[in-house]
């Protein structure tokens, strides 16, 4: 049936043309933007995933910046630690040289003083963006013994997010701590083994018999101790054997032999540390065997402190025993600095590896997002040509359908 009110053919052609125009518009949008899914209306699920991952990638870019800042701080601390280690080694060399008979220890101390000032300069200069990990003040407001470097941005399976960090313990790398709090010491403060106050006592070798009992009274850091031990081998009993016997029963201090003197060294540090001998006697196992008191005096020959930090070293008038104690202390500090330098190196390596991982992860996420929403330009160009042809045919079909009314008019002529 032909009708001038309802042109079914034209309606059909128009609908087909509208569909073609919509598809053509979508294809043109994909070509112009490069995205197959450019908004939520294109595909809500994919668009949501892509938007979230793009946001996470921006956060990871900030993590890269934080890793760069952390790497710079680690580099500054590492350079300063290595430089300080070389200075400490030089101080140890000077102390060993001072042990040589005839050396002017005052002049050696002058050289050590310059090295001590250099250590202060190095630690105070190891600052990056207001942060100094080698010279700290643990009593200051806002101080934290654990410094954190942002290392990752994490999204869990339930959608929750968190920030991962790397921890740097300042207690293991700080060279100096300005805090006056007890035990708040940097690596170069407080020392390590053989610290405390040393006292040397002049000694004359005594004559003892096997099984004689040696009795000594000492006061270590204010606490009295009554020491007692037997002579095991009188024929070979000398100052070293005496020191060994004392160490077997004494606590809080150590005994050693040095140039004919018995040196007692407190194991603690600080102004309260001290060691003193109060008595010396022997009990004979055989009443007919004479026993000679080994000490000509029980007065302290040298009670100068050999504990404290590297800045406290002063060997201008030090005894051999005190220099030996300082050598032990400085060597312990050097070992601790080596460990700290190794820790800093390991942390620097980890930051570098994490930075590389974050960079690769961001690229992988970008590729994944691209797979979801990017347009295949080869496919879209082919579709564009096909849709343009369909559009032209649709316009032609609509024109033919509209021409049918004119054919009906010719019937009335």
Task: Walk me through this protein's architecture.
Helix 2 (44-98) runs antiparallel to helix 3 (105-125). This protein has 413 residues and is α+β, with helices and mostly antiparallel strands. A hairpin with a 5-residue loop joins strand 4 and strand 5 (161-169). The relative contact order is 0.16. Among the domains are: 48-191 and 328-364, f41 fragment of flagellin, N-terminal domain (Up-down Bundle), CATH 1.20.1330; 198-305, no CATH class. 48% of the residues lie in helices and 17% in strands. A three-stranded antiparallel β-sheet has the order 7-11-10. The protein has a three-stranded antiparallel β-sheet with strand order 9-8-12, with no helix packed on it. Strands 1-2 form a two-stranded antiparallel sheet.
> H/E element string?
HHHEEEEEEEEEHEEEHH
Oligomerization state: single chain
What is the correct CATH architecture of the domain at 48-191 and 328-364? Answer: Up-down Bundle
The biggest beta sheet is recorded as: 3 strands, antiparallel
Rounded Rg? 43 Å
Helix tally equals: 6
Quick structural gist:
By secondary structure, the protein is an alpha+beta fold. It is built from 6 helices and 12 strands.
Features:
single chain; 413 residues; 3-stranded antiparallel beta sheet; alpha+beta; 17% strand; f41 fragment of flagellin, N-terminal domain
Please describe the topology of this protein.
Layout (H helix, E strand, L loop, with lengths): L7 H26 L10 H55 L6 H21 L1 E2 L2 E2 L2 E2 L9 E10 L5 E9 L6 E2 L20 E5 L10 E8 L2 E8 L8 H9 L5 E6 L2 E6 L8 E9 L36 H54 L3 H34 L3
Parallel strand pairs: 3-6
Antiparallel strand pairs: 1-2, 4-5, 7-11, 8-9, 8-12, 10-11
